[in-house]
Write a structure and sequence with these properties.
By secondary structure, the chain is α/β, with parallel strands linked by helices. The protein has two domains: 85 residues, Rossmann fold, CATH 3.40.50.10860; 130 residues, Rossmann fold. It is built from ten helices and eleven strands. Strand 5, helix 7 and strand 6 form a beta-alpha-beta unit. Helix 1 packs parallel to helix 10 and helix 2 crosses helix 10. The chain binds guanine (GUN). The site of guanine has 7 residues, from strand 4.
Length: 298
C-alpha cells in the first residue's frame, strides 16, 4: 500500500494567515483601526511563554494589534478579573485570550466566565459552548475548528463518514465531535474507559486523536485509507546525550502512515492551524464589533 498523503498544516495555516492579512488590511482601512487581540499570561510557565510570544508575533504579522499582559504568578483572582473587565470594555480589543493553564489558586472557570462572550475568541465561555451545542453562531475553539478546515480540504463532504474522536476535553474532543456531527459524519467519542479502543478506531474513516499520550494510536488500529488528524504534541524523554526529547503526536506516525490515506504530522500538522484560527476568530469579532459584515468564507 502506498504511503499516506501527509497533510501540510503549516502550508494551509500560512495560506490562511495570508488571506487574513488581506482582510485585516481592508478592515483597518474601513474601520480606522486594526483588529485587536489581548493575550493575558499569568506566571512564567516556559511553554506558555513560547505560545503567547508566538500569538503576539502572528497578530502583528497579519496586521492585527496585539496587546500582551504578563502578570506575576502570585496575581490575585480579583486583579485578574479586573483586568479582564477592563479588556471587555476596551474598544481597541476585539478578542481576549487568557492563556491556560492558570497558576494554582486561580479559578479557570471563573476567569473564562468573566470574558465577554463576544470577545471570547478561544470559544471557551459556556455561552459559546452552548451556542455550538445548539447550532447557533458563536466562537468555536481554535484547534477543533482548524482540524475541521483540514478535514474539509482533504475530504470535501463528510456526510455519512464514520468519525472517531479519541479524547473528550472541553477544548478539543467535545467541540470536535459536535463539528463532525454538524458536518453529518457519524461520530463516536472514545476515551480512557472505552472498551476495545483499537476495534473502535478500526471502524473510522476519520480519526481525530486528542489524548496527550505519545504514539498511543498504532498503525494496525487504522482502517486502510482513513484520514488521521493528530492533535497530540508530546515531548519524549531525551535520548542519550541529547538535551531535548523528540516531539511526537498521539499517533505512531510511521506505522499509521503506512496504512492511512492521509495523516497530519507532528510538528507541522494541527499545531500551526490553532494560531491561524485564533487570528480568524479575532477578525470575525472585529467585524462584529464594528457593525460590519465579515467577508464570506472567513
Ligand atoms: N493553552 C493551551 N492551548 C490554549 C488555547 O488554545 N487557549 C488558551 N487560552 N490557553 C491554551
Amino acid at each position: 500500500m502506498a504511503e499516506a498523503m501527509v497533510i501540510d498544516g503549516k502550508a494551509f495555516a500560512d495560506a490562511l494567515r495570508a488571506r487574513l492579512a488581506e482582510h485585516a488590511a481592508a478592515f483597518a482601512h474601513q474601520a480606522g483601526r486594526r483588529p485587536g487581540l489581548a493575550v493575558v499570561l499569568v506566571g512564567d510557565d516556559p511553554a506558555s511563554q513560547v505560545y503567547v510570544g508566538a500569538k503576539g508575533k502572528a497578530c502583528e504579522a497579519a496586521g492585527m494589534a496585539s496587546f500582551e499582559h504578563r502578570l506575576p504568578a502570585d496575581t490575585s483572582e480579583a486583579a485578574l478579573l479586573s483586568l479582564v473587565e477592563r479588556l471587555n470594555h476596551d474598544p481597541e480589543v476585539d478578542g481576549i485570550l487568557v492563556q491556560m493553564p492558570l497558576p494554582a489558586g486561580l479559578d479557570e472557570q471563573a476567569v473564562i466566565a468573566a470574558i465577554s462572550p463576544d470577545k471570547d475568541v478561544d470559544g471557551f465561555h459556556v455561552i459559546n459552548a452552548g451556542r455550538l451545542a445548539v447550532g447557533q453562531k458563536g466562537f468555536v475553539p481554535c484547534t477543533p475548528l482548524g482540524c475541521m478546515m483540514l478535514l474539509k480540504d482533504r475530504l470535501g463532504d463528510l456526510s455519512g463518514l464514520d468519525a472517531v474522536v479519541i479524547g473528550r476535553s472541553n477544548i478539543v474532543g467535545k467541540p470536535m465531535a459536535q463539528l463532525l456531527n454538524d458536518a453529518n459524519a457519524t461520530v463516536t467519542i472514545a476515551h480512557s474507559r472505552t472498551k476495545n479502543l483499537a476495534d473502535v478506531v478500526r471502524r473510522a474513516d476519520i480519526v481525530v486523536a486528542a489524548v496527550g499520550r505519545p504514539e498511543m494510536v498504532r498503525g494496525d488500529w487504522i482502517k486502510p485509507g482513513a484520514t488521521v488528524i493528530d492533535v497530540g504534541i508530546n515531548r519524549l524523554p531525551p535520548a542519550e546525550g541529547k538535551e531535548k526529547g523528540r516531539l511526537v503526536g498521539d499517533v505512531a506516525f510511521a506505522e499509521a502512515s503506512a496504512v492511512a490515506g492521509a495523516i497530519t504530522p507532528v510538528p507541522g500538522g494541527v499545531g500551526p492551524m490553532t494560531i491561524a484560527v485564533l487570528l480568524r476568530n479575532t477578525l470575525v469579532a472585529a467585524y462584529a464589533h464594528a457593525g460590519m459584515t465579515a467577508p464570506a468564507g472567513l
